[in-house]
Specification:
By secondary structure, this protein is of the alpha+beta class. The longest helix has 24 residues. It is 32% helix and 31% strand. The protein has a five-stranded mixed beta sheet with strand order 1-5-4-3-2. It has one domain.
């Protein structure tokens, strides 16, 4: 299919291309399991009467953390899995993701309907 973009976006912390992106996007849960990731924490973001769960996974080896947030179409947010090199990067991105999701939820509620 020309122009097809997978539903899941895979982003490396260093912004380098991820050669496994298509494989990960095809079956994120299976890929995480095969790579040895387990759920490390979950964060439920609540704003403007809506909620979204952000998940953090952990494994040993390269990219020991992975952070996933689901899509939020009213805010133009695609489902994304971030591959992260360390706990500091995970903490930073988790904080930013929480703020971004809350802001998008609030903006979507305040947006006048067509």
């Amino acid at each position: 299919m020309t122009g097809y973009q997978p539903t899941l976006q895979v982003v490396r912390y260093d912004r380098q291309p991820e050669s496994r992106a298509a494989m990960i996007a095809a079956d994120m849960t299976g890929w995480l399991e095969r790579e040895g990731y387990t759920i490390f924490s979950t964060l439920v973001v609540n704003a403007a009467g809506q909620s979204m769960t952000i998940e953090v996974y952990r494994c040993e080896g390269d990219d020991p953390y992975a952070l996933y947030h689901p899509a939020f179409p009213p805010g133009g947010l695609r489902a994304t899995l971030y591959l992260l090199p360390d706990a500091c990067a995970m903490d930073e991105l988790l904080q930013r993701a929480q703020q971004m999701v809350a802001m998008l939820m609030t903006m979507a509620v305040r947006r006048p309907s067509s």
